[in-house]
Amino acid sequence: GRIPLRYAVLMQMRFDGLLGFPGGFVDRRYWSLEDGLNRVLGLGLGCVRLTEADYLCSHLTEGPHRVVAHFYARQLTLEELHTIEISAVHSRDHGMEVMGMVRVPLYTQKDRMGGLPNFLANSFVGTAKFQLLFALKILNMVPEEKLAEAVAATQRPKKVAIDQAGGAA
């Protein structure tokens, strides 16, 4: 109740400790992009269906395994969001590929590090961090100046970590 909930973004904590969005690989020989995505989401979330209208962007990942990451976003009611969070715990992949759902903190605390800046300091899989920042900006979920401040805060060394390193030497 201290921080008003205007928007919520769900991500997953993966088996490898990286944050990412629900989804998976789609073999275009057998499925359309949306049908394949909905099949994968059905296994992991069970109760959400995406369409072409939910498409936001695509990115080619760098590295030895080049993958095109298609990003979709869907506006839900708070009740639908709760249903997804509950059904995700009962999905086939929970506890094996997916360790749990995580709500992204869409605020910055007074110390200018707590909330979104600290969240952005986590490790993300592939293009997930870029996709998150893109969605927050394009969907106007976080004011652009606040988003820029959060990103900048993650790029500054933390004073506490520097003080601890100096004290340990």
UniProtKB/TrEMBL annotation:
The keyword Nucleus applies. One of its GO terms (molecular function) is snoRNA binding. One of its GO terms (cellular component) is nucleus. It is found in: Nucleus. CDD domains: NUDIX_U8_SnoRNA_DE_Nudt16 (cd18869). SUPFAM superfamilies: Nudix. Keywords: Nucleus, RNA-binding. The keyword RNA-binding applies. InterPro entries: NUDIX_hydrolase-like_dom_sf, NudT16. Pfam families: Nudt16-like. Its main location: nucleus. Belongs to the Nudix hydrolase family. TIRR subfamily. This is Tudor-interacting repair regulator protein. The gene is Nudt16l1.
